[in-house]
Design goal:
The complex is a heterodimer of chains A (about 950) and B (about 90).
Chain A: E1 13-22, E2 25-31, H1 35-41, E3 48-49, E4 56-57, E5 70-74, E6 80-85, E7 96-98, H2 113-116, H3 125-129, H4 135-148, E8 163-175, H5 179-190, E9 195-198, H6 215-227, E10 231-234, E11 237-243, E12 247-253, E13 267-279, E14 283-285, E15 298-300, H7 301-309, E16 319-323, H8 326-337, E17 342-347, H9 354-362, E18 367-369, E19 371-377, E20 384-389, E21 396-399, E22 402-406, E23 409-411, H10 414-418, E24 423-426, E25 431-434, E26 441-443, E27 474-476, E28 481-482, H11 483-491, H12 497-504, H13 517-528, H14 549-553, H15 570-575, E29 579-583, E30 586-591, H16 599-612, E31 614-618, E32 623-628, H17 632-639, E33 652-658, E34 664-674, E35 677-682, H18 687-701, E36 708-711, E37 716-722, H19 726-730, E38 734-735, E39 748-754, E40 757-763, E41 771-777, H20 781-792, E42 797-799, H21 802-811, H22 852-855, E43 860-867, E44 879-880, E45 894-902, E46 907-915, E47 924-928, E48 933-939
Parallel strand pairs in A: 1-7, 8-9, 8-13, 9-10, 13-26, 15-22, 16-17, 16-22, 17-18, 31-42
Antiparallel strand pairs in A: 1-2, 3-4, 5-6, 5-7, 11-12, 12-13, 14-23, 19-20, 20-21, 24-25, 27-28, 29-30, 31-37, 32-35, 32-36, 33-34, 34-35, 37-41, 38-39, 39-40, 40-41, 43-46, 43-48, 44-45, 45-46, 47-48
Helix pairs in contact in A: 5-6, 7-8, 8-9, 11-13, 16-21
Chain B: E1 3-6, E2 11-14, E3 19-23, H1 37-45, E4 53-59, E5 67-73, E6 78-84
Antiparallel strand pairs in B: 1-2, 3-4, 4-5, 5-6
Classes of the chains: A alpha+beta (about 950), B mainly beta (about 90).
Bound molecules: zinc ion.
């Protein structure tokens, strides 16, 4: 034995050395080591500091149940991962690992003072101590707590790795490649089924890897599985969640164990749909609860066995065992045979069977029955243990450098619980086992509660003559919850385990209480003097172990998080310096600044040019629906507020769409192309919603109507030409359409050609100026735009963006659904009563316009506002009051919905929803702001060209 | 992710292809104008919230686009059956 490395044995490759660092110190391990086994081999017992008390902590387990030894791994810029379990980190050449939650160093941690102050940190102390004054929370308590208590530091740089994802289907998915899982996979594979076998460890085998007698079987079995074309064996793959209909999420770690990570993905997300799921997740050994059970060097017996027989590492030179279960005896006997020095076996029971005792005694191990460990000496490492009989007599000290705990087993039912399988309590096991589930799933092996570990394990809190309120006996190691905390919670009146859990935070750490839940439950049950089954069971939720966000996000990040929709004219706008904004998923040009212009100057220029000459605007994002069929007019008549049957082909109408509750949901100008054909437009953001709504009514309410709805949003590019010179720009380019005012009036549509391209040409205006909207097939959008720009040069043609479009429409009082309405605005509230066909018998939302609350006075109504200071532009969203001197909280009358500088008027304008607004014209109201209250006058929304003379040219 | 049987496609497809559409078998009244406020309120707002069998509408939005009806158990989140719009309540 060199250091703590056993002379031989284990599944490590002693021919392949791995150099690595821990907190900057150099160490060496072998291929096949985990960080935990390599550090233990190097004599390290102190791995980290605990969450709340900053107590020194070592390794408790050997697998994913590990609560203490949390480590940060730094692989260079953008590759920092905190909170990894040392028991799951494979050692590779150059690994740089650091401990967490300590300052300035792991051995000397200033915040360990928390431990001395432990009496001030009882259960629920966050809730109790820092109640008042509230402001202290933000400034004092929370920052202090955040500094003192915690896990590793979050990464500070963007993740430089990339992540893959895949779907898989199989008849049989086996989760857990221990002996039970391997047998299940072999059996399923032999029937020809597609089988996927996943295991979180680097090698298949589970518990068999800690039992050399099983290695020949293991080798044969893995060879059979590897050679079967219908079997996929995935190691380093954690099945983290079990979802509906046997849908399992698993993440495969591809590069974390490699010295050279190459260029491939770091992890792969598997979405697996399985005919049958077989859970073979095994069981986790339960710690024992006694004073000092968190001292570095105190660990689970099964873990120590794994380190010895799988990794060839002794966890101490003189190891003691504290058992309440037979399995610990088997483990320590196996370890002793492998060369680990064993100094004592202590068992709380007096009735340990002779079979179990015989082997230990044959090896000359001193055996102490009916006794318990009542204390641990040593702060950074175990130096000795205090032992006494369960009645408190025969108290003495035994020197040792490691203490193993064997408290029985807890079946791993996490994924079973995700699948909402029910659990049944088994007194004999002192544990919950799987019962029934509505998924096609079964549990095999230890996770089903069937194991050959022997008997015992019913006493998890060891009896001690010491006063229990002095004991630091930990239940939840990761969240620093002691047995005393749980008893205190019960004393303070908590009854349900769900409440006790949240009050004490037991089981709420990143390990979800894998080693603590059952002990916590039994202590609570004891304190309440009620059976375990009476106080409930907390629920496990995905993920089984913490997973990286990168793997869950996959490629859906950055520009691929959601698609950015671009119009055919987007490239031109980009080349001409447009500033963009996102509208729904569309990227739209907001304004086109010239050199030296800011947004204000650019938008003013764009507005001026539209009113004086002609502006050109990319309106391609407008939602467009073609409505076709003999009943098309009847259908629209039922959907929209206004009458549609009387609309002649070649004419357009402004349509207002309500929900059945009477509130505005969309609007847009639509055209009748023919008796049985309409071209609808919707708002940019409402296109999908409107089509869905129309499909709903068509399919489910009026299936007798012969109508077809087709989205044509992306089939047409739409270019708006707006301004007094618009017709002049168009005239030379259009064929087959008479553009003269008499032949082509406002709110009309004509089909023809422009620059040889077939077009649906609308004469409509969202600016109040003479305007056209030219629809052409998308592929011709940019070519036409460029042609119009060239043709318009001598007319002063100016591209304008959404910002100028907003200002121009506000000057005319046109609403933007979703900005000037909020889902509680009726046509009457919005001043659009003229668009309601009151003579129509019915339309969607009509009956609701007569609802008591909708006809009641005092509703918020859309009005214009003019600030008394013409240079002041109000903030959108600002609240409106009648009297700014009233006491706080003030009575708010409404809010500003739109607010702009109007270049046309040379002053600011605003739209607002104001209670009883239509009756307040001329009234002065106030907008209280942090510095002062602004006075405004209520006015008409028609700020510009009220009589509409500019349209009729 | 639940698999849902579309009665039009006659296939079980993943949940993400579908959109929930509220309680089923609530027909829009033939003549809303004749209804009093209480009756209109019932049609507009009042919905069942059973523990167990729930009749509800779904739409195969990213598939055939059709609305259909389903019976789903709100306790187990299991679909008992799905059937075409217009077929009688099951
Ligand atoms: Zn379908």
């Amino acid at each position: 034995m060199s250091g703590y490395r056993l002379a031989n044995g284990g599944r490590i490759d002693r021919g392949v050395r791995r150099r690595f660092t821990f907190d900057g110190r150099p160490f060496e391990g072998f291929s096949g080591d985990t960080l935990a086994s390599a550090l233990l081999a190097g004599g390290v017992q102190l791995f980290g500091r605990s969450f709340k008390y900053h107590r020194p902590r070592g390794v408790l387990g050997a697998g994913s149940e590990e609560p203490n030894a949390l480590i940060s791994v730094n692989r260079g810029p953008g590759r920092f991962t905190p909170n990894l379990r040392a028991t799951g980190i494979e050692v590779y050449e150059g690994l740089a690992a650091t401990s967490q939650n300590r300052w300035p160093s792991l051995r000397f941690d200033l915040a360990a003072i928390n431990d001395r102050l432990g009496m001030f940190f009882p259960a629920g102390f966050y809730n109790k101590t820092f109640m008042w004054p509230r402001s202290f929370w933000e400034t004092l308590y929370e920052p202090a707590i955040r500094r003192m208590a915690g896990l590793g530091n979050p990464p500070t740089e963007e993740d430089r790795d990339h992540y893959a994802a895949t779907y898989a289907h199989c008849e049989c998915l086996v989760i857990g490649a221990g002996p039970a899982g391997i047998e299940a996979a072999l059996e399923a594979a032999s029937t020809g089924k597609r089988v996927i076998l996943v295991d979180e460890q680097d090698e298949a085998g589970g518990g068999a890897m800690s039992d050399p007698a099983l290695w020949p079987w293991l080798e044969r079995s893995i060879a059979t599985l590897a050679g079967a074309p219908n079997v996929t064996l995935l190691t380093r793959t954690t099945a983290f969640g079990y979802y509906h209909d046997n849908f399992i999420g698993a993440i495969e770690r591809l590069t974390d164990h490699l010295a050279d990570i190459g260029k491939g993905p770091r992890e792969r997300l598997w979405r697996i749909r399985a005919g049958e799921v077989i859970l073979a997740q095994g069981a986790i050994e339960r710690p024992l609860v006694f004073d000092g059970n968190d001292t570095p060097g105190v660990m689970l017996a099964s873990a120590a066995r794994t380190f010895a027989l799988r990794h060839g590492v002794a966890v101490g030179r003189s190891v003691a065992l504290m058992a309440t279960h037979d399995s610990g005896w088997r483990d320590i006997v196996a370890m002793a045979k492998a060369g680990v020095g064993v100094c004592a076996v202590i068992d709380a029971r007096t009735n340990v069977s002779n079979d179990v005792q015989a082997e230990a005694k044959a090896l000359g191990i001193p055996v102490h029955l009916g006794q318990c460990v009542i204390g641990v000496k040593g702060r950074h490492a175990v130096q000795a243990i205090e032992v006494a009989s369960t009645d408190g007599s025969r108290r003495r000290t035994i020197a040792c450098d490691a203490l193993l705990m064997a408290g029985g087993w807890t079946p791993t039912v996490h994924l079973w619980s995700h699948a909402r399988g029910s659990l049944a309590w088994r007194d004999a096991l002192g544990a919950y086992v799987p019962e029934t589930c509505s998924e096609i799933v079964r549990c095999v092996g230890a996770c089903a509660g069937t194991w050959d570990f022997g008997a015992g394990g019913l006493i998890n809190t060891l009896p001690s003559p010491k006063p229990s309120h002095r004991a630091r006996a930990f239940v939840d190691f990761q969240n620093d919850v002691t047995a005393k905390d749980i008893r205190l919670a019960v004393q303070e009146g908590f009854r349900s385990i769900e409440h006790i859990k949240r009050y004490t935070t037991t089981g709420m750490a990143t390990d979800q209480g894998k080693t603590s839940n059952l002990n916590g439950l039994r202590i609570a049950s004891d304190a309440l003097a009620r059976p375990v089954t009476d106080i409930g069971l907390t629920t496990f939720r995905p993920p089984y172990t913490p997973q990286s966000f990168g793997a869950l996000a996959g490629r859906a990040q950055g520009p691929l998080f959601q698609p950015t929709r671009k119009t055919p004219i987007d490239g031109w706008a980009e080349e001409h310096g447009a500033v963009f904004e996102l509208v729904a998923q569309w990227r739209r040009a907001r304004y086109f600044p010239k050199p030296g212009e800011d947004m204000h100057v650019a938008v003013n220029r764009e507005c001026r040019m539209v009113r004086q000459a002609v502006g050109i605007f990319d309106a391609s994002t407008l939602g467009k629906i073609e409505v076709v069929g003999p009943d098309a007019a009847e259908f629209l008549n039922r959907m929209y507020t206004n009458p549609w049957k009387s609309l002649e082909p070649g004419r357009c109408r402004y349509g207002l769409l309500l929900r059945e509750d009477g509130f505005i949901t969309d609007d847009g100008v639509s055209a009748r192309l023919d008796d049985d054909r309409f071209h609808l437009t919707t708002t940019t953001g409402g296109a999908t919603r409107v089509l869905n709504m129309m499909e709903d009514y068509l399919q489910t309410e009026w299936p007798d109507l012969d109508v077809w709805l087709t989205s044509i949003t992306e089939q047409y590019a739409v270019i708006a030409l707006q301004g007094p010179m618009a017709r002049k720009v168009l005239e030379p380019l259009v064929e087959g359409i008479d553009l003269s005012p008499g032949a082509f009036p406002h709110m009309a549509i004509r089909a023809g050609r422009i620059c040889g391209i077939p077009t649906r040409l609308f004469r409509v205006s969202f600016t109040g100026e003479l305007g056209f909207e030219i629809n052409v097939p998308t592929a011709f959008g940019r070519a036409l735009w460029e042609r119009l720009m060239a043709e318009g040069q001598h007319h002063g043609i100016t591209p304008y963006g959404t910002e100028a479009m907003h200002v121009l429409r506000a000057e005319k009082g046109f609403i933007i659904v979703g900005q000037d309405t909020d889902g509680t605005v009726t046509p009457y509230d919005a001043g659009l009563g003229w668009a309601v066909g009151t003579k129509k018998k019915d339309f969607v939302g009509k009956r609701s316009l007569a609802r008591p609350d909708i006809v009641a006075p005092g509703r918020k109504q859309l009005v214009g506002l003019m600030t008394d200071d013409p240079n002041l532009v109000l903030e959108e969203g600002a609240q409106i009051v009648a009297d700014p001197k009233q006491a706080v909280p003030m009575t708010m009358l409404g809010h500003v919905t739109s607010s702009y500088w109007s270049e046309t008027l040379g002053r600011s304008i605003a739209l607002a929803l104001v209670a009883g607004g239509h009756g307040r014209t001329g009234e002065t109201l106030y907008i209280p702001m942090p510095d002062r209250a602004h006075s405004v006058k209520v006015c008409s929304r028609l700020f510009h060209d009220a009589e509409g003379a500019r349209l009729n040219v | 992710m639940i698999l849902i049987h579309c009665p039009y496609c006659d296939e079980k497809r993943p949940e993400i292809e579908f959109v929930y559409g509220g309680e089923a078998h609530i027909a829009r009244p033939a003549d809303p104008a004749t209804m009093n406020d209480a009756a209109w309120e019932r049609y507009l707002f009042i919905r069942n919230n059973p523990r167990g069998r729930h009749h509800e509408r779904w739409r195969h939005s990213h598939g055939c686009g059709r609305f259909f009806n389903a019976v789903r158990d709100t306790v187990t989140d299991r679909f008992e059956t799905t059937y075409k719009a217009g077929e009688p309540r099951r």
